[in-house]
Amino acid sequence: MSRILIESQQFMREQKDECSFVSLRDVQRALMVMAWFYEQAENNGVLFEMMNTRLSNKYTFEAQNSEDEDNHANVGLDKLTRSLVLALGVCYHACLGTEKRQRYRKRVFKCFRDPCVLTRGANQIAEEIEW
């Protein structure tokens, strides 16, 4: 997780606009937002259930229209990984323009390791946060 936050901070610092102003408060905010999402999953789970349903429907549709059998693999992320991805979306991804968002997702995806694994690549970050 620290690798992902470090990479997020570095990416933001490299931007040539207002997004480049990041500090340890941004890391703290990301951790607090992540904890909030995780608590939501633990306490009532409604948000994550809705996300799983929506993504399941999306992947089923894609699988029906594709010959790629792995297209709908691993619909739901575990609570920890999803909480982290959503926190990244709120704290970093949201303040980037469209082109920068794609570059950010590709770069940060490379830092995801067990126990926080994304099986569908960098696009899975977008699928999780842009619903």
Architecture blueprint of SSEs:
Elements: H1 2-13, H2 24-43, H3 46-64, H4 79-91, H5 98-109, H6 123-129
Helix pairs in contact: 1-5, 2-4, 4-6
What does this structure look like?
Helix 1 (2-13) runs antiparallel to helix 5 and helix 4 (79-91) packs across helix 6. It is built from 6 helices and no strands. The two termini are 23 Å apart. The protein has one domain. With 131 residues, the chain is mostly helical. It has helices at 2-13, 24-43, 46-64, 79-91, 98-109, 123-129. 63% of the residues lie in helices and 0% in strands. GO terms for molecular function: ATP hydrolysis activity; ubiquitin-protein transferase activity.
